[in-house]
Amino acid sequence: MLETEIHRKSRSIAATAAALLDPELVKTIRRRDDETTPAYAKLQGELRKVRNLNRRKDTWIRNIFILMPARQDPRIVEYAVDAEENFEYSHHPGDIYRRDGQPVSIGLEGIEKLAERLHDYQAGYRSSFASIRDESGALIAMVGVTTAATPYSTISHLAPSTLIPLTITIALAIGFSSSLLRAVARPLNSLRQLIDAVGRGDFDAVTAATAPMTGEFARVADSVKAMAAGLRERDTVKRAFSGYISRQVLDAIIAKGELPVLKGERRRVTVLFADIRGFTAMAETMRPEEVVQLLDEFFDSMVEVILRYQGTIDKFLGDGMMVIFGAPLDDPDQEEHAVAAACEMQRELRALCTKWQAEGRAALKMGVGINSGPAIVGNIGTTEHMEYTAIGDTVNLAARLESATKELGVEIVISEHTYSAVRPLFRWKSAGEITLRGRSEPVRAYTVEV
After folding, report:
1. Which of 113, 149, 418, 449 lies 20 to 30 Å (CA to CA) from residue 257?
2. C-alpha angle with apex 251: 145 to 58, nearest 5 degrees?
3. Cα–Cα dist 432/8, whole Å
């Protein structure tokens, strides 16, 4: 789980940076002379902002950079922009990207697969990448992020020198007097309670624990407390930023260096709900690692599509997600963007399923429901827990329409409110008036050809 969290955080940082960068500016950086241009300075500044915002106790960015294919050979990957200030360690436009002294010659398309081999939890780092695409959807560059996770590496270094002697001590204690057994069992039980508290997410109980421990027990307990403190800070940051995924909100955060005040307001939005069909039953037949890998690939692909169509990911719902179009900034084409995103999400899922089936893995199906209308949008909640979201009947109807995809046997169901705004732009089929759970009146709905 710890390694998975490091991987998620690293990949999230890379995706955030990629969303912020202007692809047209990236295209202008090809030679070392370009380091003196305003475009290079702007790109480097944005990379440094992302790096500095994410240098926290639980995740420390070692480096963040942009890679592009070499002009002479697109299989060779070279640096375009590097955020490193230290001249001794920085790279320049045109410098070849190397691993173990050898040029990386698998092209941009192979970088993500390579990233799975560019981690070392004993050394405490992981490298992750996110793609940068132009308006046509062409892959032009990648953002690379190398992160170090010090609390995790501390525990990893302690384990061989602590847990093995501890096990031997417990075995020998069986033959000793009952008083010695109690002396060993008492701190061990306290340590177990600390670890159980971490598993429950009760980080306050861990950091406040004062059970007497000495020697190796005390050192392991201190490391567990340090890890809990880092996890607690990570969760705090995660809650604060969980709703700010769209490029518009991220721009506001980075420009101010703090969370913007986004008060609840009534505005017209288009809401999209997406959910994997039958995933719970399928997950019961899979190992947890396989489930995580499948969801990671699924969400990576879906999020990239959503951000490309100016959507804001409101929240992930287990094996699904809620997306808002038209907030926090107005989008006059929000209905078109939502429907186009839904169609492309289905096409991306088909491509993923083809890949998974070739690898002997399960294929997935996804239902999508879309509705447009007024909603209350903004920071909603209490002082203890607040998130950026949308609430109202518009949201509820979108969720019900997603559920209706199962009964109708279709991939996408759209309300009449959305349909009327984009009728000439897509190929439609009327689903007639359908009865939805929790609604007293039938609702006219439509399906769209992907």
Report:
1. 149
2. 40
3. 42
Q: Give the pTM.
A: 0.47
**Nearest CA to 203 among 234, 225, 176?**
225
Q: Give the whole-angstrom CA distance, residue 85 versus residue 150.
A: 22
The SS3 of residue 132 is strand
Render pLDDT for 56-79 as a digit per residue (tens, 0 to 9): 766 677 889 999 998 888 888 899
Q: How far apart are CA 52 and CA 257, in angstroms?
A: 10
Average pLDDT score, the chain: 79
Residues sharing a CB contact under 8 Å with residue 230, sequence separation 6 or more, in sequence order: 57, 58, 150, 151
CA angle 155, 158, 161 (to 5 degrees): 155
Is pLDDT of 256 > 60? no
Q: Is the bond leading into 328 cis (omega within 30 degrees of zero)?
A: yes
Q: Which domains does the chain have, with CATH numbers?
A: 2-148 (3.30.450), 152-235 (no CATH), 259-448 (3.30.70.1230)
Cα–Cα distance, 142 to 9 (Å, whole number): 17
Give the number of C-alpha atoms closer than 13 A to the C-alpha of residue 73, restricted to the C-beta side.
9
Q: What is the pLDDT of residues 335-350, one digit of tens each?
A: 999 999 999 999 999 9
302 class by beta-carbon count within 10 Å (0-12 exposed, 13-18 middle, 19+ buried): buried
Q: Which residue in this structure is represented by tokens 């045109």?
A: 94
Residues linked to residue 377 through DSSP beta bridges, in sequence order = 265, 390
Average pLDDT over residues 154-173: 48
- What amino acid occupies position 282? M
Backbone angles phi, psi at 81, to 5 degrees: -140, 140
Q: DSSP labels for 34-76?
A: GGGSHHHHHHHHHHHHHHHHT--SS-EEEEEEEEEE-SS-TTS
CA 262, 264, 268: angle at the middle one, nearest 5?
105
- Return all residues near 290 (Cβ < 8 A) that are at least 6 apart: 361
Let me know: does 306 contact 271? Beta carbons within 8 Å: no
d(C-alpha 298, C-alpha 316), whole Å: 12
pLDDT one-digit tens code per residue, 221-235:
666 666 666 666 656
pLDDT tens per residue across span 351-401: 999 999 999 888 889 999 999 999 999 887 776 667 778 999 999 999 999
Characterize the bridge pairing of strands 428-434 and 443-448. antiparallel
Encode burial over 426-444: b for 16+ CB neighbours within 10 A, e otherwise. Answer: bebeebeebebeeeeeebe
Q: What's phi and psi for 6, nearest 5 deg?
A: -60, -45
